[in-house]
Design a protein that fits this description.
Structural class: mainly beta
CATH topology of the largest domain: Thrombin, subunit H
CATH superfamily of the largest domain: Trypsin-like serine proteases
Radius of gyration: 19 Å
Distance between the termini: 74 Å
Number of domains: 2
Oligomer: single chain
Helix content: under 10%
Number of helices: 2
CATH architecture of the largest domain: Beta Barrel
Length: about 240
């Protein structure tokens, strides 16, 4: 077999590198839009049977704190149904953690109060045991309209990748992705996110347009649009 020269190997490596999905995400820090701080982290005690044995672990997902219609303290969190699928022991507490407007971590207990009931409607609402005061929180407002393909989005969550997401410890977001089409009633995007970002938010002009449901960790992410759960949110916010 003919051996390639070092220069040829370098050119081959550069060509292959060009085919890999570029890292478009940014870390949410002091320079990020403040509305991204509405996205927090959920730890959900989970138990299910796998290969004949029970597994017990904390499911780590994301969730978005929702703004009350008249302002005031916030108590509702939007996430994905599949994050709660194996939450069966109600004596064990769900934890929600968010960074407040002063940069401090706030933790609350949460309980599930409504959901779509399956992957066909992959959304869930949780209620905090203690509301987060208006002067200490960012909370997301729901986007009232319908977006057309090509609309610009931002998608945020606690991705569990070993890179920018740091195993789910850092809130990250794709600041400039787009709506690309539909998958039944749900919406397709080219946003980049990883496992752990499920339940996070898709935003347009700083307002929430949907909840992240699933994707391929390579530039395809699917969200459930607001219109599919807005009635449930409105009932809970009354």
């Amino acid at each position: 077999m003919r051996r390639r020269s070092p220069a040829a190997l370098l050119l081959l490596a550069l060509a292959l590198a060009g085919t890999v999905e570029a890292e478009r995400r940014l870390a949410v820090d002091g320079g990020a839009p403040s509305w991204l701080l509405a996205v927090g982290r959920l730890a959900i005690p989970t138990s299910h049977r796998e290969d004949g044995r029970h597994r017990h672990y904390n499911e780590r997902c994301s969730g978005t704190l929702l703004a009350p219609p008249e302002g005031g303290d916030a108590r509702l969190v939007l996430s994905a149904w599949h994050c709660l699928e194996y939450y069966t022991d109600l004596s064990r507490e769900i934890s929600f953690e968010i960074t407040d407007s002063r940069g401090h971590a706030l933790r609350r207990r949460a309980r599930a109060v409504a959901s779509g009931g399956g992957m066909a409607a992959d959304w869930a609402l949780l209620e905090l045991d203690t509301p987060i005061p208006a002067d200490r929180r960012e909370a997301a407002e729901l986007y009232p309209g319908t977006l057309a393909p090509g609309a610009r989005l931002a998608m945020a969550g606690f991705s569990g990748d070993a890179g920018l997401g740091a195993g789910g410890d850092h809130l990250t977001y794709d600041p400039a992705c787009r709506l690309t089409g539909a998958s039944g009633p749900d919406r397709l995007t080219d946003c980049l996110a990883y496992k752990g970002a499920s339940g996070g938010g898709a935003f347009h002009d700083g307002r929430l347009v949907g909840v992240l449901s699933r994707g391929d960790s390579g530039g395809l992410s699917i969200y459930v649009p607001v219109r599919r759960f807005s009635a449930a949110v409105e009932r809970r916010l009354r």
